[in-house]
Write a structure and sequence with these properties.
Layout (H helix, E strand, L loop, with lengths): L3 E4 L2 E3 L5 E7 L8 E7 L6 E7 L4 E3 L7 E6 L4 E6 L8 E8 L6 E3 L3 E5 L2
Parallel strand pairs: 2-11
Antiparallel strand pairs: 1-3, 3-8, 4-5, 4-9, 5-6, 7-8, 9-10, 9-11
Length: 117
């Protein structure tokens, strides 16, 4: 099992930046997949960015060229750097990890991101 704690959310103006962090309770060195999702009231949770092993990130179209997912194995932490933020990026952002292919996913508690002037 893995416990995840997100941080870094907050209120930011349009065009601003935030970096979300997801700290894991165990080593992420061998974890199969990590991802960031977001959810707004009344909508399904949406995959924003994912990272399989040490490969390159995959992004939802609306996040391409603005968001970057990365990992720091030494700190057992996954990051989501978000630049050029827009009001439509406002949501609760959740971290998810899948320890091995086909295995269960683990979720953090979420962190609120609000983009507003």
């Amino acid at each position: 099992q893995v416990q995840l704690v997100e941080s870094g959310g907050g209120l930011v103006q349009p065009g601003g930046s935030l970096r979300l962090s997801c700290a894991a309770s165990r080593s992420i060195l061998s974890i199969y997949a990590m991802g960031w999702y977001r959810q707004t009231p009344g909508k399904q949770r949406e995959l924003v960015a994912s990272l399989i092993r040490s490969g390159s990130g995959n992004y939802v179209n609306s996040a391409k060229d603005r968001f970057t997912i990365s990992r720091d194995n030494a700190k057992n932490t996954v990051y989501l750097q978000m630049n050029s933020l827009k009001p439509e990026d406002t949501a609760v952002y959740y971290c998810n990890v899948q320890v091995f292919f086909g295995g269960p996913g683990y979720w953090g508690q979420g962190t609120q991101v609000t983009v507003s002037s």
